[in-house]
Amino acid sequence: MRVFAPPSMSLRFVPVWRRNLLVWRKLAIPSILGNLADPMIYVFGLGYGLGSMLPEVGGVPYIAFLAAGMVCSSTMNSATFEAMYSAFSRMHVQRTWDAIMNTPVDLDDVVLAELAWAASKSVLSGVAILAVVWLLGLSNSVLSLWVLALVPLIGLTFGALALAVTALASSYDFFMYYFTLIITPMSLLCGVFFPVEQLPAAFQAIAAFLPLTHAIAIARPLLLGHIPSDAVLHVLVLLAYAAAGFYAATMLFRRRLLK
Amino acid sequence: MAVLAAHNLRKSYGGEDVVAGVSFGIQAGECFGLLGPNGAGKTTTLRLCLGLIDPDGGSVELMQRPVPGEARPARARVGVVPQMDNLDPDFTVSENLLVYGRYFGLSERVIRERIPQLLEFAGLAARAESRIQTLSGGMKRRLTLARALINDPDLIFMDEPTTGLDPQARHLIWERLKQLLAQGKTIVLTTHFMEEAERLCARLAIMDRGRFITEGSPRELIVRHIEPHVIEVHGDGVMNWADREAATLALRLEKSGDTVFCYAADPAPLLASLSLRQELRYLHRPADLEDVFLKLTGRELRD
After folding, report:
1. Structure ipTM
2. Where in the sequence is the domain holding A153, given as residue range(s)?
3. How far is B4 from chain A (nearest CA, A)?
4. What does the pLDDT look like over B76-100, one tens digit per residue?
5. How many helices (H) and strands (E) does chain B have?
6. Cβ proximity of A190 and A216 under 8 Å
7. Residue to substitute from B50, B75, B90, interface A, most A β-carbons within 10 A
8. pLDDT tens per residue, range A47-106
9. CATH number of B227-286: 3.30.70, 3.60.21, 3.30.450, 1.10.287?
10. pTM of the predicted model, to two decimals?
């Protein structure tokens, strides 16, 4: 059975990625504004509102602490949203994938294209927040430029995980489980809004396994001008989640669509 | 030259044989019809031929390449008009063709050259910049046909191409399919419209419960399976008449609802009997493919 074969990777995914880009270009302005609005409300609301009541966190103003969390979590949300709701629309509702698979492009190419597209869209979100962080002067270290390389990796990781969920979804409602059970807890456990060290030991142990923790463990020191410790380990964890998610997604989509 | 050949093709789902040992060959330039009630296994057969699913047994050669092993290069020479419209709703008419051409690895220049010709062929030249939502059902179907031609295929699979269309739209599609055949294209068509199969297909197979139950030209199938005359009778007392008189005058009778179908080689005695029964109304016509289809697959509903 072909289900368990490793994903076949080739540049045939590019025309599918370009298809999604062409759709996005028609809606680019509202899409960018939408991507920015939500995290900005958090940055200003929590950063200035809550921040004004807090002493410094880890030696920096709260809003500067929050910046890394917002870059990582908006990248995560954007990739997740695209790989779930939008990919599901294309696969199940519009039957766009069916049309594509009648050409020399096959399912593995489509899945790779969806992953690449989810990551691309999340880069727009992540970089948009990063630009605001720079404009507000919340980070002025040259090291923060490295976050530009981190953001695509975060997008790939969460895009791949979300695609595996999409492969199992029977309707849009299914995605609420993933948001409620995985994404929201991750936002609260992984150091977006407060240091992981503030949590009870058991939660800290859980957080250590979650990919968002590792993304923030790289992004936060970089934005604050330090070299992250154990950066290689954190990158490897993210890569492992991305690879496992992509392989699971490919297998699950094959099981669903090639029978 | 065979453009498609299937040998003892089998596929089952959950222990049920959806395609249960199907063999056929299709020569370049012919129009082959695959007829069958809903759930007969037509669409699954097409998906097997395209290499979209793996067979449980048997083999397929598409454009002389083994499928699914070499499905990718084989599909580069094939066009598909699927049963359900899956045009890109976010794009205009010409963008749909452009984006689809890219999936075949065609250069931008080649695609842009072909788009005006295809729009002309599909009668959509004036709608190049229209959004998909503004098209009628017939226009969408023609655009789907144009999309299937973007790679200038040798073989076109059409899965129920005129289902849901009004007669005008249907006739226009038939017209275009004849043009494609005249250009030397090969067409494999699934349908449950007998008229469509009779008009277009030189050869057809009737499929039921995963098997081909008969195969031949429309004329051959009618001669082989059915009496040449059909008299459809209805009206008060028709069942009584059928049992007492028609049963001895017709070669075969079929009752469906309040209508009796009398099949006969010589219709004269039946017509004479009917002329004495003013309360019965009847239609005398030559036997057609639909009679063959209903005889072989039964009159009960399929879902």
Report:
1. 0.92
2. 2-257
3. 16
4. 999 999 988 899 999 999 999 999 9
5. 12, 14
6. yes
7. B90
8. 888 888 888 888 899 999 999 999 999 999 999 999 999 999 999 999 999 999 999 999
9. 3.30.70
10. 0.92
